[in-house]
Amino acid sequence: EVQFVESGGGMVQPGGSLSLSCVTSGFGFSHYDMTWARQAPGKGPEWVSTINFSENLKDYSDDVKGRFFISRDNSKNTLYLEMTSLKLEDTALYFCARGLYSTGDNGRGQGTQVTVSS
Question: Stretch 7-35: mean pLDDT, rounded?
Answer without folding.
Answer: 97
